[in-house]
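Saturday, quiet lab. Running sequence design on the structure tokens for the scaffold JK sent over.
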């Protein structure tokens, strides 16, 4: 085990590369060490209103603020730069109506990957 992992709290859950915030929050909520039953309860605890519910349904308008990310990152023990990786790049949106998980892909990567769900717009550059 790496030294960094040993210093983490029991709430920490590593994220998968390309994983969406919605899938990550679902995995985090199912952890045995998490005593919060509903995402809405977590949102209330963090004083974020309906923000986490919007993110769970892939609605990012308005985009996540630094304060929202900091509050969430503190309780789930995830740094801001890692937390930002769970969201679509600036200028990209996700079509929440078209979320489908491919069974063959899911056996290789058991999580929702954002890239396949972007609404691509001509002239929009992705920011890594």
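Result came back. Writing it out in full:
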């Amino acid at each position: 085990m790496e030294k960094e992992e040993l210093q983490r709290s029991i709430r920490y859950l590593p994220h998968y590369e390309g994983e969406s915030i919605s899938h990550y929050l679902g995995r985090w909520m199912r952890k045995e060490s998490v005593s919060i039953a509903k995402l809405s309860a977590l949102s209330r605890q963090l004083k974020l209103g309906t923000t986490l519910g919007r993110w769970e349904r892939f609605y990012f308008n308005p985009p996540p603020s630094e304060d929202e990310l900091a509050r969430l990152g503190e309780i789930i023990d995830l740094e801001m730069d890692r937390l930002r990786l769970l969201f679509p790049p600036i200028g990209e949106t996700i079509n929440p109506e078209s979320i489908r998980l491919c069974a063959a892909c899911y056996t290789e990567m058991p999580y929702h990957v954002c890239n396949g769900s972007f609404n691509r717009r001509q002239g929009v550059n992705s920011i890594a």
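Notes for JK: Helices lie at 3-6, 21-29, 39-45, 51-56, 66-76, 80-84, 103-108. Residues 118-128 have pLDDT under 50 and may be disordered. Ask whether to fix the surface positions before the next round.
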